[in-house]
Design a protein that fits this description.
It is a single chain. By secondary structure, this protein is of the alpha/beta class. The chain has 2 domains: about 40-250, 3-Layer(aba) Sandwich (Aspartate Aminotransferase, domain 2); about 255-385, Aspartate Aminotransferase, domain 1 (Alpha-Beta Complex). It has 14 helices and 14 strands. The protein has helices at about 40-45, 60-75, 85-95, 110-120, 140, 165-175, 185-190, 225-235, 240-250, 255-275, 295-300, 315-325, 355-360, 375-385; strands spanning about 10, 15-20, 75-80, 100-105, 125-130, 145-150, 175-180, 200-205, 215-220, 280-285, 305-310, 330, 340, 365-370. α2 (about 60-75) packs parallel to α9 (about 240-250) and α3 (about 85-95) packs across α8. The protein is globular and about 75 Å long. It starts with 7 loop residues before the first strand and ends with a helix. The structure holds pyridoxal-5'-phosphate (PLP).
Length: about 400
């Protein structure tokens, strides 16, 4: 049997040696690793040893998270980064070169939108935004320079769902790398690789960590793709700190339990909101009234912890309800144990014109909830008093 990777030799006061095998992976708080000889370094450089050299390349506390993530995504390999945006940048800059075209869903996270439209294009990569409805027929749209397709499902804040298998199949038929930002679903509710996607991305800041105390990102896919992106991460430098790696690994231990409870509570909240006279519309993929309910039923095993409502009377009315919340906290971000509420008009869709809001399906009276782990009765009571 090979020794446990974290078995450490402890030196006792008497100088004797003792072995300690921790249950949890320790925090390897080190920027560099010690070698016994030149021959050991040579073996490392030739790829014939599994030693670590330098924490920007790899670190055991971070590697532990990557192995765990690969297992839960059903991937050959995974990579974690210092933020979700570092994962987006590592993927796009690692895969594309000047002259390539990226096809990007027009409904993506604002940071991704700015990175591809303001930054990527400066490096000679052209970007074409594709309406969500056309993603399943991307093979008919893609030109000769197209290399990759970036899309997201469910989409913020309407929770519209793209047919992932159809989009991935269309990409494959044209030799395009399909990349899905699956942050809103978490790996518990959606298995993009099994649906044919090449690369799955997460803002691990959200459900994977789950405690709103770490900023991190993740990518998972084939060994070939991840090896290529590991090179990009090494040189862009967007690595996760070992302390954050430890916190992320600890959060991931309860991912399944947390998300199962969030799915149940969100469904209860969504149903309750649908029956409330002041709520004009509820957006939740688990409700038959959601435009993509059928797609969600086909490709998700749970409908997630995000619920959006439109209280109908516009922005001022939404602000009044927002300001009256007591238990649910007013904050951006999502996926943590504390329930949060944000107004898309003040966060993800801030500064958009009326036409852009219509295109994104966002109304002035929208409120977005990230359902946490509080008792659903308490969440509903808070909503009831805020809406009263
Ligand atoms: C869907 C989605 N993708 C990517 C990101 C970026 O992640 P991070 O904030 O961890 O960089 C976010 C952040 O809100 C997000 O919601």
């Amino acid at each position: 049997m090979s020794p446990h990777p974290d078995t450490r030799i402890l030196h006792t006061a008497e100088g004797a040696q003792d072995h300690a095998t921790p249950l949890t992976r320790p925090i390897y708080a080190t920027s560099t690793f010690v070698f016994a000889s030149a021959a050991e370094i040579e073996a490392y450089q030739q790829g014939t040893s599994d030693q670590y050299l330098y924490s920007r390349y790899a670190n055991p506390s971070v590697q532990a998270v990557e192995d765990k993530l690969a297992a839960i995504e059903g991937a050959e390999a995974a990579l974690v980064t210092s933020s979700g945006m570092a994962a987006v940048a590592t993927a796009l800059f690692g895969l594309l070169r000047a002259g390539d075209e990226l096809l990007c869903s027009s409904a993506v996270y604002g940071g991704t939108f700015h990175l591809v439209s303001d930054v990527l294009q400066r490096f000679g990569v052209s970007v074409r935004f594709v309406p969500m409805a056309d993603l399943g027929a991307i093979d008919r749209i893609a030109g000769p320079a197209a290399r990759a397709v970036w899309f997201e499902s469910p989409i913020n804040p309407t929770l519209r769902c793209v047919d992932i298998a159809a989009t991935a199949a269309a990409c494959r038929s044209k030799g395009l790398v399909s990349i899905l930002d699956s942050t809103f679903a978490s790996p518990v509710n959606q298995r993009p690789l099994a649906l044919g996607v090449d690369l799955v991305m997460h803002s691990a800041t959200k459900y994977l960590n789950g405690h709103s105390d770490v900023t991190a990102g993740a990518l998972a896919g084939s060994r070939t793709l991840i090896d290529r992106l590991q090179g990009a991460r090494k040189f862009f430098g967007g690595v996760l700190d070992p302390m954050a790696g430890y916190a992320l690994a600890r959060g991931m231990k309860t991912l399944g339990l947390r998300v199962a409870r969030q799915n149940d509570s969100a469904m209860r909240v969504a149903r309750w909101c649908e029956g409330h006279r002041r709520v004009a519309r509820v957006f939740y993929p688990g409700l038959p009234s959601h435009p993509d309910h059928d797609v969600a039923v086909r490709q998700m095993s749970g409908f997630g912890g995000m619920v959006t409502i439109d209280i109908g009377d516009g922005y001022e009315a939404a602000c009044r309800v927002f300001d009256r919340l007591k238990l649910i906290q007013r904050a951006a971000s999502l996926g943590g144990v504390e329930s949060l509420c944000s107004l898309p008009l003040l966060t993800s869709q801030y500064g958009l014109s009326d036409d852009q809001l219509v295109a994104a399906g966002v109304t002035r009276g929208m409120m977005r909830f990230s359902i946490g782990l509080e008792h659903p009765d308490d969440l509903i009571a808070d909503l009831e008093q805020a809406l009263a």
